[in-house]
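One thing: mind reviewing this one?
=====
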Amino acid sequence: MPCLFTLLLTGFLCMSAHLPALAASPDTAPAQALHSVRLENGLRVLVKQDRRFPLVSLRLYVHAGSAYEDPKEAGISHMLEHMVFKGTAKRPKGQLAADVERTGGYLNAATSFDYTVYLTDMTAAHWKEGLDVLKDMAFNPSLDPQELEAEKEVVIAELKRGEDNPGQRLFRLTHRQALKDSSYQDPIIGYEETVRSLTPKMMRAYIERLYQPQAMLLVVCGDVEPEAAIAEAQRLFGNLKNTGAARPDAAPRQSVQAGGFTAVVQKGPWNKVHFSLALPMPALSDTRAAQLDVLAQILGGDASSRFYRSYKYDKRLVDGIDVGNYSFERLGLFYIQASMDADKLIPFWESFSRDLAALGESTFSREELDRAKLNLEDSLLRSKETLSGLTSKLGYFAFFAGGEQGEENYLRSIRDTDQAVLLDLIRSLFSPAALSMTVLLPEEAALADLLPKAENSPKEKDETGAGSWESWLTATLAKNWKGPELAASGPAAALSAGAPEIIELGKGRTLVLLPDSTLPYVAANLVFSGGDTLLDGKDQGLASFAASLLTKGSAGRSALDVEDYLSDRASALSASAGRQSFNLSLNAPSRFSGEIFSLLLETLGSPAFKEEEASRVRDNQIAAIVAREDQPTGLAFRRMFPFLFTKHPYGYLQLGEKDRVAAFTAKDAQAFWKEQVQQPWVLSVCGSYDREAIVAAAKALPLPDKKESAPAVPEWNSERALSLHLPGRNQGHLLMLFPTVGYGDKDEAGLDLLQNILAGQSGLLFRDLRDKQGLGYTVTAFPWKAEKAGALIFYIGTAPDKMAQAEEGFRKVIARLAERPLPEEELERGKNQMEGDYYREHQSLAARSAEAAGLTLLGRPL
């Protein structure tokens, strides 16, 4: 038997120098025209040629989602998405994924409230096979009764796993409250009872009713000739017939009436309080939807937003707070979410409810508005960096918002949003009677213990309703938000990328240049050797602590100044520590890159390391430790490395332990940084930039004066099993780990190929444990690699009573691998999959920059 490690989690299951400006290159590729045709049967075909990568991205949108389901069949859209992978009239189970993955493609599907989308990202030579698979999935699922019964168990396990995740549970509960009695109240996955009631007959009737060609959109984007794509679409889809309405009938439950503030409080096995508020909002087609996006960005869109700045940074009452506006086809949802320690909930709600009441009289500064608009527009543009993102964005606007004109209308609405517009939104749409609140509390969080002593007197208790969390939350809102409403409870573009260039600057400094003028953006990674290898075992977590603190201000700027500076330029600068490296990454529109590189130099040369900011970083790091150990998979991966490597930097807890982190100071971080900044480094820059300005920027960076710190070869733990337990969970998680090799070993490529053969929807593990035995929703294999060691990891999330069966399934697959050679078709599928994955994963500038820096630091070729 091969040497292995197993990790078992059981519960009850579910799982300041100024640098020259870095200008954009003048040869930015021109935008390509969209080709749009409608076939005789009404199916619309949208094609965009984009030759940046040898890939073609395909999307088939169907106007069929959970908002069009009958309440008795809740979850049928999601179940159908699962069942299409179980075989079609011409492809048996597993063949869909096999046909795509053997050519290096990627296959998936997704269900939303208003639509279902089937998608493939193919290598350019095989886009026709991808198109044929999409048609087969959508129109020819076999819906075998036995497969349906087996898949029900998988979906129910997925549902239960979502209940173990506080974020997912919170959103579902809030969604159901806020959009009660509308067609959006039920979760996309459905409920256990409705999932169990589904039959092949019901699913065929569903397809017959909603899968109409005239209610579909096919999007083809990438290295493909538009005429050929349209012709192939006509050949495959042109003979399909419509059997129903041009679009699904609007479900009768499509409006929400404010019935008074509601508060739902649930206790459970959580380490933190998870809090949400929501209000129903206008639909996607309403011009106010874009304006609400601006408001959400200002209030809680990033670290420079109002609520984040107030409650996370200044008052330090929350671990995190986010605001989002979700626009659906016929309704919308304005959503506020926060997490915090239990003893912070009372002061948080006292203050936050007052802030909500005061929003209608708020003043929104020009800086806030400009920053929010810039970042929303920037987010839209950046989503088009990859073919997958571009295709999805094209499909979304074409399907729901009038195509390119819809996108222009959305951007115009954002640009036209001003102070008066935002105040009108708040005054017309924000009401305490429309609020829905959900709070997930730790079991031990007792109101009487957390209220100030004065509020525990009988008189105060009667007046405030402090006898329960629900009544106290409601009474506090009524007190702070007065109002009667609360009485109730062209030409084809060539790849615009030049040849990579490696410049040795001497003394441990290397510059890697990856020119790509497709978009006016630049991404860079500055990677030092070091990280955890500079620590001893007593200071685990210090490298991560120092990385977080490093970007929190400089000698000339406060932490808030830095956040504002970055947000005003739609840019980002962050630092992170690895097991043997320390990384600073930045990305920016090209027109701002000179300013962001100046900020990088300022950060490296004169970091502030203020104790006030160190206190916030400590709180954040401890909160991250607690949050990670609150989820089964987070706990497993956190404890895996100390178990595998007991006396080596690879085995360090990268976030450290809570007690040790609580003792870290700004001086500790400063001392670590003094050592770290002297290590050799690689700077990698990818995108549209001025070469000479980048070279000048690199030469201005710190000069190393120490040799690279390389870790020793680790010894693996002699123990072979670790069992971890989290109470009250619905799913168990099993990881089986095999020691392998590190980067650069002669066997690395072969092991990567083996991992690809094992993983994926057509992989050996998925076919055996998922398709044949129905043991878990997620079954996969993935690698971990460092310079001196590696591991191949098998993973499955399954029911607690099936853990032994899952482990035995892993062992049988391993035995078969040892007994006989893999068939040639399996090898070919794995190779093609690796090639396709490589191009998909390296479309973004940031991904290419990060990879080049990491490889160069390890002394490996690009």
